[in-house]
Design goal:
Layout lengths: L25 E6 L7 E4 L5 E4 L3 E4 L5 H12 L8 E7 L4 E6 L5 E4 L6 H7 L10 E5 L5 E5 H6 L4 H5 L8 E4 L7 H26 L1
Parallel strand pairs: 6-10
Antiparallel strand pairs: 1-2, 1-5, 3-4, 6-7, 8-9, 8-10
């Protein structure tokens, strides 16, 4: 049986994150002791790469683990017991975007999928500590609601927090929390009260 080595580069995150390859990603395929089959490939817009001897391969929409399995089968006729490793050298979009009521809204470079808590810390934290929710907008348009209070409490399991990982191309939106400005309201009520007293006193003087 072929021995397979599945490696993710420092920028690819843990294997359990199951990053899915996308057009524009740059991957490195290494076949031990067979440099003729090793090389660096940029995934074309059609989701394919051109691989030596084998030819065109559809790789977009696959995880690295899935691609390793495919490479094993493709190389078996040419190599006895191929040892294959795949690493992601660069993401097509290695940035996330954090907008809304945070310390420093903007775009941030990441080298691995990061969770929402790290993303919040990266942008200087929440401007309003009472903010309860946020939204993660995936690159494909999917929107995920984040319960910030529950997430920040630390009571969620690792499996539960994994759905809040941000990947390259994702956007986190923290809506502004419109708190009640009690100082302003007190000032307005004070003015109204004084005005009412003046009106009442004026009416009293007229009645004399």
């Amino acid at each position: 049986m072929a021995v397979l080595i599945f490696m993710l580069s420092a920028g690819a995150g843990a294997a359990g994150d199951e990053y899915i390859l996308k057009p524009g990603d740059i991957i490195s395929i290494n076949v031990v002791e067979h440099q003729e089959f090793s090389g660096r490939h940029k995934i074309r817009p059609d989701g394919r790469i051109n691989y030596p001897v084998i030819g065109e391969l559809d790789v977009a929409s696959l995880s690295c683990a899935q691609l390793v399995t495919i490479m094993q089968g493709k190389l078996a006729p040419y190599i006895n017991n191929p040892v294959v490793s795949i690493s992601i050298e660069a993401y097509f979009a290695n940035k996330i975007f954090i907008i809304g009521d945070v310390g420093r809204a903007g775009e941030y470079e990441i080298y691995e999928p990061i969770d929402a808590i790290k993303a919040i810390a990266m942008c200087g934290g929440l401007r309003n500590s009472k903010t309860k929710t946020a939204k993660i907008i995936r690159g494909d348009g999917t929107v995920i609601s984040v319960n910030l209070r529950e997430l920040l409490s630390g009571r969620m399991s690792k499996r539960e927090t994994e759905k809040y990982l941000l990947y390259p191309g994702d956007t986190m939106y923290v809506p502004e929390s419109f708190g009640v400005n009690w100082g302003l309201i007190a000032t307005i009520l004070g003015i109204v009260s004084v005005s009412l007293q003046i009106v009442l006193y004026t009416n009293y003087l007229r009645s004399k």
